[in-house]
Design a protein that fits this description.
mainly beta; Ribosomal Protein L25, Chain P; RNA Polymerase Alpha Subunit, Chain A, domain 2; four-stranded mixed sheet; 2 helices; 13 strands; about 10% helix; disordered N terminus
């Protein structure tokens, strides 16, 4: 096997391999309640897959780490959500890209930003503005952080937290520009 088993205690999400990737076959799978997925990784052949949408959403809500296990056909893989598309009106998932979390291989991942606290600038008629919901990092799967937790309780009006203000492990490199604002308190109009 070419992946690590990061998630031994989590239920395995099972999917099917799509034989046909035509538009007509895709529409048929969506009609039957399937979520279309592409699974890929460095040096690994792409897998066109489909998961039951309600099972996929349930598994995503119950996962504790960014990496979670899936079984497609006869392959068991540890994957990370790289990208997803939602229906503009119904807010249901249309498509998801899953990156295989390969052990010991440097890859780029998108890590969510989690905000805690209430900014003191809100009392001075400020508004909290979240500019980046996810940050791009380059690291191995073993060193992948689950999220970046930012405490915004000391932010006043006109103050921001930039990418360069985030402290990471030596094995994790943030790929976004260091001058980009992640979250800040702006003056309400």
């Amino acid at each position: 096997m070419f992946t690590l088993n990061f998630t031994k205690d989590i239920d395995m999400l099972e999917g099917i391999v799509r034989e046909s990737i035509t538009k007509q076959a895709t529409k048929g799978l969506r009609r039957d309640g399937y979520l279309i997925a592409n699974i890929y990784g460095k040096g690994v052949e792409n897998i066109n897959a489909a998961f039951k949408e309600n099972e996929f959403v349930k598994a995503i809500r119950n996962k504790e780490t960014l990496i979670f296990p899936v079984k497609v056909g006869d392959k068991e893989l540890d994957v990370v959500i790289q990208e997803y598309q939602k229906h503009p009106v119904k807010s249901t998932f249309l498509h998801v890209d899953l990156r295989i979390a390969l052990s010991g291989v440097l890859s780029k991942y998108l890590v969510p930003v989690k905000i805690i606290g209430t900014p003191k600038g809100l009392k001075d008629k400020g508004v909290l503005a979240l500019s980046k919901k996810r940050l791009c990092v380059k690291c191995t799967a073993e060193n992948l952080p689950n999220n970046f937790t930012l405490d915004v309780s000391n932010l006043g009006v006109g103050e921001t937290i930039l990418v360069r203000d985030i402290k990471t492990d030596a094995n994790v490199q943030i790929m976004d520009e260091d001058r980009i604002s992640i979250v800040g308190v702006i003056k309400a109009k």
